[in-house]
UniProtKB/TrEMBL annotation:
WD repeats lie at residues 244-286. Pfam families: WD40. This is WD repeat-containing protein 79. GO terms for biological process: Cajal body organization. Keywords: WD repeat. Belongs to the TCAB1 family. It comes from the Eukaryota. It comes from Ramazzottius varieornatus.
């Protein structure tokens, strides 16, 4: 680790560290039976901000904790429960261990790709919010480590719409209008490399709304934009290919398969999750979910790429098997559906080592004179055992 990064990192001496066991089991997800609810966190509903609602959840790369985003601009960190004595017979309360307040509405957030709770220097995450630079936060203390700043022609700070950290953990990629900026994580400030993705350069154009890295070693990154386009580029920003997407609206999420052969994409107000064969650059299959909302509905693929799981606007969890024979089917309806929330399921996240699935619910409810005040609204994080 460079001297500059060490200066940003929190030292281990002042922290009580709960490390993840060195030997991790392989997750075995089984959706043949309903998921078993083991923990719930309802502190979002009790927030002083009446408009607070969850906006997704993401497990840390080492599985030690879970990070959530919510409309009150607070990032909450939940430690992974200890199941050494077995699963609880009934759901237990789950309380956040850390809260980080951003200055404004959080557009995007992600874990540092090399995060390990056994090494405090790597225990951090990245956020971008409406009126602020990209921020790097300490995941133990909740303190601000560094800022990565983009400015416009009038020298005003411009907020990134999406963020991602490369697999090597050396660079932060930030998506703006017609531009991707690449910051060296060891050197905070304004210095960065700029990748022009505007249409005048034969690229996709628009606001870069989502990004994903291929972790199989191909040196490839995918950029999705609100102009409905997806481009595949080298990590230096050189264009490899543009996917001719049929998404009806802006791209909200991208996800590479572990072997780098497929790319999954989703868009707002679009019922489909598309699976792309990156060898042919064609859609291999589309998966239909109950969507129809401008709010981002996250999906996830389990670490062994056996299952695709997505939230829906009607409180259900939709699940599809990803075996080769299943991928060849024309029927794109979910193979399994479970009632897991009483409001929109906006976030799902598979644990990388254990058979645990986190789900988040909530959405913005606009008061209406035609709807009674007793309209159901649920802003809850749940943890399920699926095995």
């Amino acid at each position: 680790m460079s001297t500059a990064m060490e200066a940003l990192a929190t030292t281990a001496e002042s922290i009580s560290i709960e490390t993840v066991p060195p030997a991790q089991p392989t997750p075995h997800y089984d959706f043949q039976r309903p998921p078993h609810l083991v923990y719930t966190a309802d502190e979002f509903s009790s927030s002083k901000d009446a408009s607070c609602y969850l906006k997704g959840c993401k497990w840390a790369p080492d599985g030690s904790c879970l990070l959530t985003n919510s409309a009150d601009s607070v990032l909450r960190l939940f430690d992974a429960p200890d199941f050494s004595t077995g699963l609880p017979p009934s759901p237990l309360p789950w309380k956040s261990a850390l809260r980080v307040k951003e200055v404004d509405l959080v557009y995007d957030y992600c874990w540092y790709s090399k995060m390990s709770s056994s090494d405090p220097a790597t225990a951090c995450f990245v956020t971008t919010s409406k009126t602020a630079p990209v921020h790097l936060w300490d995941a133990f203390l909740g303190t601000h480590r560094a800022s990565y700043i983009a400015k416009d022609n009038s020298d005003s700070v411009v907020a990134a719409n999406s963020v991602a950290v490369n697999p090597e953990g050396t660079m932060i990629y930030a998506g703006y209008s017609n531009t991707v900026r690449i910051f060296d994580i060891a050197y905070p400030g304004e210095e960065c490399a700029m990748v022009d993705v505007s249409k005048k350069e034969g690229r996709q154009g628009g606001i870069i709304s989502s990004m994903a890295f291929d972790v199989s070693g191909t040196d490839m990154v995918a950029f999705g934009s609100y102009s409905r386009s997806i481009s595949l580029c080298s990590c230096d920003g050189d264009l490899i290919s543009t996917l001719e997407t049929t998404h009806s609206n802006g791209i909200t999420q991208l996800h590479f398969s572990p072997d780098g052969r497929r790319l999954y994409s989703a868009a707002r107000m679009d019922q489909r999750i598309l699976c792309w064969d990156l060898r042919t650059r064609k859609v291999l299959r589309d998966f239909r979910r109950e969507s129809g909302t401008n709010q981002r509905l996250y999906f996830d693929v389990d670490p062994l790429e056996r299952w695709l799981c997505s939230g829906t606007r009607n409180g259900k969890l939709s699940v599809w098997p990803l075996k080769e024979r299943e991928m060849a089917k024309e029927n794109s309806a979910p193979s399994f559906e479970f009632d897991v929330h009483s409001d929109m399921v906006n976030g799902v996240s598979f644990h990388l080592q254990w058979s645990l699935l986190a789900s988040a619910s909530g959405q913005r409810h606009v008061p209406s004179p035609f709807v009674a005040e007793s309209t159901v609204s649920e802003n809850i994080l749940k943890l399920w055992y699926v095995g």
